[in-house]
């Protein structure tokens, strides 16, 4: 009884910021986050991309949550939405590949280069091309003239060595290929992406283990559709504080890759349903625990296509960027077994020291790693515009990223409740 009494006394002597962030148990926080991640990564959201209006369904859900937690639109707007458009290449129909009559599984056995054009051919012949024989750029240019769209599929061996020779990333390699269908064998895990352009070629990355001697024919059916003006929304709400025109910003992107054809869904649970769920939790928390400053909540779209939503906001800000005191961006919040990394930690050492001190005093996370500037999430354009910004991501988990396996049930949320406590206390302590 005496020990319990002493514990209560010590707890009450802690700064109120630390106590108030513990309004719920660790289990309750995880359960709440898990349920929101499950909604955002559900198959009904179609990967929150550009096929079957997945991103628009996610936008509606987030706006509903903003209303629930009494966030207000920015004063001169009646809506949470900041709408803009950009081009994006999509695969809304067939994405089929078969080898000698055996149908391969999209996302598991192969992926389409995100810039690929439509292509259809049945029982195509199969020609291997050894790219290791290329010794210079001129030799490569000559080889390009030999590729013909003549009822065959080219199987390109040793692409990595050629890319190294030419100083190209594999993604850009596909952009120089002429019209036709090309297969590139791959040992590494598949990582898909989004492309704003269409290439001349149709490029397919296939598990190298599926190709054996004696292949007779290949059938391909790819239906691509370049949407020149795909509508997208940044979703913005505010909780006003005592200082109404000075803001702390909490951000996360809610878009993901969507669907590759009508079968393969990229759920994006870790990237970034988890960060979006965290943003919604912060909205819920601060709606009942008002901050001294106003808090701006922004759920960005277009991140996977190149940080487009956050760039658009910084070029068309709904509040003066100079009025944003600090921005905290959360992207990939699924498993902090090995702690977190803070991008821009070296740019803002005072704020990073505050974060570390809170973590140490409360024994929250096993490690907080420091990282410098990087253009790898939505904090970047704000940081470049002079807004003090952190991008926080977790270290740990199964490594599912930009693939069909990044599902809600694969996320552990280890130590993520501690991140909630850490970020809330950090925001409360910012001066």
TrEMBL record:
Pfam families: Peptidase_M28. Gene3D superfamilies: Zn peptidases. Keywords: Aminopeptidase, Hydrolase, Protease, Signal. Residues 234-426 form the Peptidase M28 domain. The keyword Protease applies. Residues 1-23 form the signal peptide. InterPro entries: M28_fam, Peptidase_M28. One of its GO terms (molecular function) is metalloexopeptidase activity. One of its GO terms (biological process) is proteolysis. The keyword Ubl conjugation does not apply. This is Aminopeptidase. It comes from Flavipsychrobacter stenotrophus.
């Amino acid at each position: 009884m005496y020990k319990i009494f002493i514990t209560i006394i010590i707890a009450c002597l802690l700064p109120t910021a630390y106590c108030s962030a513990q309004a719920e148990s660790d289990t309750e926080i995880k359960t709440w986050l898990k349920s929101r991640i499950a909604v955002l990564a559900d198959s009904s959201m179609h990967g929150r991309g550009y096929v079957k209006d997945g991103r628009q369904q996610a936008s509606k859900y987030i706006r509903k949550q903003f209303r629930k937690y009494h966030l207000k639109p920015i004063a001169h707007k009646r809506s949470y939405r900041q709408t803009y458009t950009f081009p994006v290449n999509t695969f809304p129909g067939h994405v089929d590949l078969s080898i000698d009559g055996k149908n391969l599984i999209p996302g598991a056995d192969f992926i389409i280069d995100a810039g690929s054009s439509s292509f259809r051919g049945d029982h195509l012949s199969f020609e291997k091309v050894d790219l290791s024989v290329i010794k210079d750029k001129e030799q490569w240019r000559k080889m390009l003239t030999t590729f013909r769209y003549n009822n065959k599929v080219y199987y390109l061996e040793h692409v990595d060595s050629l890319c190294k020779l030419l100083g190209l990333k594999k993604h850009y390699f596909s952009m120089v290929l002429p019209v036709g269908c090309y297969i590139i064998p791959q040992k590494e895990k598949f990582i898909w992406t989004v492309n704003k352009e269409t290439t001349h070629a149709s490029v397919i990355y296939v598990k190298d283990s599926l190709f054996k001697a004696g292949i007779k024919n290949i059938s391909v059916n790819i239906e691509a559709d370049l949407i020149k003006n795909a509508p997208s929304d940044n979703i913005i709400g505010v909780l006003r504080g005592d200082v109404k025109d000075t803001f702390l910003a909490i951000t996360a992107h809610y878009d993901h890759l969507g669907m590759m054809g009508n079968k393969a869904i990229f759920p994006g649970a870790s990237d970034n349903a988890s960060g979006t769920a965290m943003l919604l939790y912060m909205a819920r928390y601060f709606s009942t625990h008002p901050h001294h400053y106003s808090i701006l909540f922004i759920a960005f779209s277009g991140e996977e296509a190149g940080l487009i939503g956050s760039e658009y906001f910084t070029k068309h800000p709904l509040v003066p960027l100079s009025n944003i005191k600090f921005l905290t961006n959360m992207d990939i919040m699924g498993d902090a077994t090995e702690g977190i990394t803070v991008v821009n930690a070296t740019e803002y050492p005072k704020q990073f020291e505050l974060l570390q001190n809170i973590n140490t005093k409360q024994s929250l996370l096993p490690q907080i790693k420091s990282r410098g500037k990087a253009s790898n999430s939505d904090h970047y354009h704000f940081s470049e515009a002079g807004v003090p910004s952190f991008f926080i991501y977790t270290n740990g988990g199964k490594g599912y990223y930009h693939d069909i396996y990044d599902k809600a049930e694969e996320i552990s949320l280890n130590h993520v409740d501690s991140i909630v406590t850490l970020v809330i206390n950090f925001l409360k302590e910012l001066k």
